[in-house]
Amino acid sequence: SIIHDLHFQSLSPVPSTGVQVGMYYAVDYVTTFYFGRVISVAASFVEVKFLHSKGSTTYDWPRTDDVDRVHCSCIFYGPVLLVGNRPFTISTQREVEKVHLFIRKQHKL
After folding, report:
1. Long-range Cβ pairs for the range 53-58 (8 Å, 24+)
2. What proportions of the chain, in percent to the nearest 5, are helix, strand and coil?
3. Rounded to an integer, what distance in angstroms lies between the CA atom of residue 26 and that of residue 91?
4. What is the pLDDT averaged over residues 52-80?
5. 3-state SS, residue 99
6. What percentage of the chain reaches a pLDDT higher than 90?
7. Which of the 8 DSSP states describes residue 15?
8. Which pLDDT does position 38 carry in this prediction?
9. For the segment 89-106, what is each residue's pLDDT rounded down to a tens digit?
10. Other CB atoms closer than 10 Å to residue 20's CB: what's the count?
11. Average pLDDT over residues 37-62
12. Beta-ladder partners of 80
């Protein structure tokens, strides 16, 4: 349904709560995306601690923290649910991949 909404540009407005600290989101990095936990929100920017890929569908925390400050507009999906206990899987990973692919195609037009 999200892809349908994107295609017809009829996305529901962002919830008033917006991005929440402690929740996990997918963050767009132009050619790929990463999953991470929001550790702080300040105005239009979010500090995210990223998970690293351990396989095509598994993720874990890196040995040294991978933290970046990104604009809220880079967060394109979430919150997502982590499943398991190191390494983790993402319950909606296939849907996230489809949405990111759709976004990439839209930017190429």
Report:
1. 54/87, 55/87, 57/89, 57/90, 57/93, 58/87, 58/88, 58/89
2. 25, 40, 40
3. 12
4. 92
5. helix
6. 58
7. P
8. 97
9. 998 999 999 999 888 888
10. 13
11. 93
12. 24
Alpha helices in the chain (DSSP H): 2-7, 93-108
The torsion angles phi and psi of 75, rounded to 5 degrees, stand at: -85, 115
For a pLDDT cut of 70, what percent of the chain falls above it?
83
Contacts of 43 (CB under 8 A, 6+ apart): none
Query: Quick one: which H or E segment has residue 69?
Result: strand 67-71
* Matching residue, tokens 């925390």: 61
Distance CA 80, CA 100 (A): 14
Q: Which residues contact 88 (CB under 8 A, 6 or more apart)?
A: 51, 58, 59, 60, 82
Q: 3-class DSSP state for residue 7?
A: helix
**pTM of the full structure:** 0.79
pLDDT of residue 28: 92
Residue with the two structure tokens 């995306």 = 33
